[in-house]
Amino acid sequence: MKASSATCSARPILGGQFPVDLYEDKDNTYVRAELPGVSRDAISVEMVEGSLSIQASRKDKSADGEGTVSFNRLVSIPDEVQSDKVTASYENGILTVTLPRKEESKPKKINVAVN
Amino acid sequence: MSFFNSITPAAPTALSTAEAEALPSRRPSYEVAETDGGYTLVINLPGVSKEGLEITDEGGELRVLGKRSNKLPGGVVVLHRESSEAPFELVLEHDNTVDPSKTEAELKDGVLSLKLSKAESAKPRKIAVT
User: Fold this and answer.
1) How many beta-carbon pairs under 8 angstroms link A with B?
2) B71 in contact with A at a CB cutoff of 8 Å?
3) Options 1.10.10.10, 3.40.50.1820, 2.60.40.790, 2.120.10.10; CATH of A11-103
4) Global pTM?
5) Which of A37, A72, A91, B29 is the most buried (most CB within 10 A)?
6) Residue A107: what pLDDT?
7) Residue A31: enclosing H or E segment and its boundaries?
8) Does residue B4 fall inside a structural domain?
9) CA–CA separation, B73 vs B124, rounded Å?
């Protein structure tokens, strides 16, 4: 897995790079990212040349004023996916991206007749 | 800041609930700011839902326990894992300078915001000289 470095401010609560999980079942590959406190419209997810790019920004208010912090990470996806069918959901600060695999990259069962 | 004058690191044995998992707890990232009437505390708790959250304030000790609902679905093959299922636990001492009955809590998108009000006895008082 290849990962770019996350852009983050010096503010400690924002941490550094956000943690990412990658897992799959027979039809889909999933990428899950911990992005607490980000509003849905500030999340952008796209497939770029076999990698999933996750970008998000978070507005923070504090005594020192307001600031925007951006996060981004590139996750390389091992299988070929149907880029137009990628979906994403966000709940409790966790982003889950579902990437349906292309038919040809799914494992195929081939019956071979043995004579 | 004089408020949280000591911070107890989360200890594996400190889990208060009976169904505490075998996993040791982790201290979440958080930020404290002082306001006129009290303090605001912002805690990052990704993967914690309202149901998994437990906040107690007793004897000058504020404890936040967040059980995570981020277990991976069954039957999947894990290719890479960075997240942890360990519960979050944060314990902060405040020497009763806070009135726990006035604490307000809001959980949104994995971020818990706590508004703590200073106890009347902890507020500065002007004393007239007679």
Assistant:
1) 92
2) no
3) 2.60.40.790
4) 0.75
5) A37
6) 67
7) strand A28-34
8) no
9) 53
For chain A, give the number of residues. Answer: 115
Domain CATH code at residue B79: 2.60.40.790
- Summarize pLDDT for B46-73 with one digit per residue, the tens: 999 999 999 999 888 999 999 998 788 8
**Residues of chain A with confidence (pLDDT) below 70:** 1-16, 62-64, 105-108
What's the number of domains chain B is made of?
A: 1
What residues in A contact B1, CB-CB < 8 Å? Answer: none
Q: What is the pLDDT of residue A112?
A: 84
B36 interfacial to chain A (CB closer than 8 Å): no
- Which of A9, A34, A39, A43 should be substituted to probe chain B, the one whose Cβ sees the most B Cβ atoms within 10 Å? A34
The distance of A13 to chain B (nearest Cα, Å) reads 5
Two tokens, residue B41: 């505390």
Check whether B19 has a pLDDT greater than 70. no
Inter-residue long-range contacts of A25-29, CB under 8 Å, 24+ positions, other chains counted? A25/B73, A25/B75, A25/B76, A25/B77, A26/A106, A26/A107, A27/A100, A27/A101, A27/A106, A28/A98, A28/A99, A28/A100, A28/A101, A29/A77, A29/A78, A29/A79, A29/A81, A29/A99, A29/A101, A29/B79
Tens digits of per-residue pLDDT, A56-66?
Answer: 988 877 666 77
B104-114: pLDDT as tens digits: 999 999 999 99
Per-domain boundaries in chain A? 11-103
Residue B45 lies in a domain: yes
